[in-house]
Amino acid sequence: QEVAVKLESQKARHPQLLYESKLYKILQGGVGIPHIRWYGQEKDYNVLVMDLLGPSLEDLFNFCSRRFTMKTVLMLADQMISRIEYVHTKNFIHRDIKPDNFLMGIGRHCNKCLESPVGKRKRSMTVSTSQDPSFSGLNQLFLIDFGLAKKYRDNRTRQHIPYREDKNLTGTARYASINAHLGIEQSRRDDMESLGYVLMYFNRTSLPWQGLKAATKKQKYEKISEKKMSTPVEVLCKGFPAEFAMYLNYCRGLRFEEAPDYMYLRQLFRILFRTLNHQYDYTFDWTMLKQKAAQQAASSSGQGQQAQTPTGKQTDKSKSNMKG
Q: Which residues are in the Protein kinase domain (predicted)?
């Protein structure tokens, strides 16, 4: 069986793979969390071995010519909210929510628990790959890359970390919350706000603060921050269902220690989904494209060779605390 291997030089200035492996261990068993096979040292590297997953949402967005239908965005939103909620229940915040850190499965995770897209209870299903493909791991979204994650409350006492205002920006500036730009300690609300920007990125194709030029990284982040703060939510979400503005306004209105109402946010999008008469059939935009590409390749080669579709990959890169 193929696996993904994440390598980090033992000479890395800011080693984080051991930390990340410990975090994965805490999260093991959650829906949409990759299964960790092994962590250790090999030659000059720290090594993390995990299940191989499919392409990231950024890969798939590019594969779909940077256009997602509302149906695909809403089906993704449902799973993304649930993934973040699960990490939060384990007392951690992710702090780098972006399309590159959500990966689709490759259809080998079928015996794992999948949440029901409708209704409040999670249901555990054992599904063989030959059965209903709707519930195969192919349609399951995974959250990865916990190198920047942080514990926000104590397991035993449930004591929340204190409010602070002297923090450097952690994560990716494009999707960072306004408070993260302002140097405020991140909490659950910031992961949720970042997700709001990811959803609008999928809706709009790009965000108003993309492509800003500046002499230094610091100046670029300041420009992004200014543009983000000066763009009203209603302007950002103009031309799209009101639920997206409602989502962002709700997240921006959360207090530092406040628990987001994840079910309320999921229901916002589920009700919209039903109002638009979509079927929750796990047919994403890329599902059709890949089928067409495979058929074309099969007919053109006559040997059934597979067309070029995004491949499963997890990038091995050390992160600094500040990224553009």
A: 1-273
**pLDDT score for 129:** 33
- Local structure of 42: helix, strand or coil: strand
Q: What is this structure's pTM?
A: 0.86
How sure is the predictor about 287, in pLDDT bands with cuts at 50, 70 and 90?
A: very high
Q: Is the domain covering 53-323 a CATH 1.10.510.10 domain?
A: yes
What is the reported pLDDT for 132?
A: 43
User: Measuring CA to CA, which residue among 315, 319, 324 is closest to residue 15?
Assistant: 319
Return the domain boundaries, the chain. 53-323
Two tokens, residue 156: 């035993």
Query: Any alpha helices (H) in the chain, and if so which ranges?
Result: 17-27, 57-63, 70-89, 178-181, 188-204, 217-230, 233-236, 242-252, 262-275, 285-301
Question: Hey, how many other C-beta atoms are within 10 angstroms of the C-beta on 48?
Answer: 23
How much is the CA Rg of the chain, to the nearest whole Å? 20
Q: Give catalytic residues, as residue numbers.
A: 96
